[in-house]
Design brief:
Helix content is about 80%, strand content about 0%. It is mainly α and about 240 residues long. The protein folds into three domains: about 35-100, Alpha Horseshoe (Serine Threonine Protein Phosphatase 5, Tetratricopeptide repeat); about 100-185, Serine Threonine Protein Phosphatase 5, Tetratricopeptide repeat (Alpha Horseshoe), CATH 1.25.40; about 185-235, no CATH class. It starts with a helix and ends with a helix.
């Protein structure tokens, strides 16, 4: 009985010792120079001082920091300065390190598109989603990307998957409306804009979009009526 008690005490002691060692290693890591520089870079990024953040992130990486998130934040800092070409290699590297990060991949594809590299943008977009993905937070950025690339069929399919789960999702309704308008399906687009306005009648920008597609659908009287309502709603 006494021997059993001693064994249990030894096990508890060894577990506590292991936890203490791991905690000490974690604390040591956070006190290393590159992590301190990274923490400063994060504060600079949050405050909107992108030039200083870029310098600090680069310094942390040069000192041996091995956090993929640092490269992503460096890309974000360049994008905050609208230096998209400088952001690209860091976003590409992060995508190689974290290919399952759908939001970052969608941003990479959007950046390719913005830089006129449509084929690369489409290649990234086509790799983003498993067939059974139904999370609106994951689907919407990819749907928006397809819409931006004027791949309206793919965009409509993904917006439809969102709406199958959340029937009145505003972003999906607007995205689907714009995709329909982009392919000349003006009546369907108008119907979707009206659904958005039913939930928020004071949404002036959506009312103007509705008036525009009604004009394209050659329903000029309805279009004029919507433009008038939009003017009445102008602050």
């Amino acid at each position: 009985m006494r021997q059993s008690l001693l064994n249990r005490q030894q096990i508890v002691f060894l577990v506590l010792l292991a936890v203490a060692i791991l905690g000490a290693l974690g604390s040591y890591r956070l006190l290393r120079g590159e992590y301190l520089v990274y923490a400063r870079a994060q504060r600079l990024f949050t405050s909107g001082d992108f030039p200083a953040a870029i310098t600090a992130y680069k310094q942390a990486l040069e000192q041996g920091l091995e956090l993929p998130a640092a490269g992503l934040r460096l890309a974000d800092s360049y994008m905050g300065l609208r230096d998209f070409q400088a952001a690209l290699p860091y976003l590409e590297k992060y995508h190689r390190q974290k290919p399952r990060d759908v939001n970052a991949a969608a941003r990479l594809a959007a950046l390719y598109s913005q830089l006129g590299r449509r084929e690369q943008a489409l290649a990234v977009a086509n790799q983003l989603l498993p067939a059974d993905e139904n999370d609106p937070a994951v689907l919407l950025p990819v749907a928006d990307l397809y819409k931006q690339l004027k791949e309206y069929g793919n965009a409509r399919a993904l917006y439809g998957r969102v709406l199958a789960r959340e029937q009145e999702n505003r972003k999906a309704l607007l995205g689907l409306a714009e995709s329909n308008a982009g392919t000349g399906q003006h009546e369907k687009a108008a119907e979707l804009y009206r659904r958005v306005l039913a939930a928020d009648p004071g949404d002036r920008s959506t009312r103007i979009r509705l008036a525009r597609v009604l004009t394209w659908a050659d329903d000029k009287e309805a279009a004029i009526a919507e433009y008038r309502k939009a003017l009445e709603e102008e602050p």
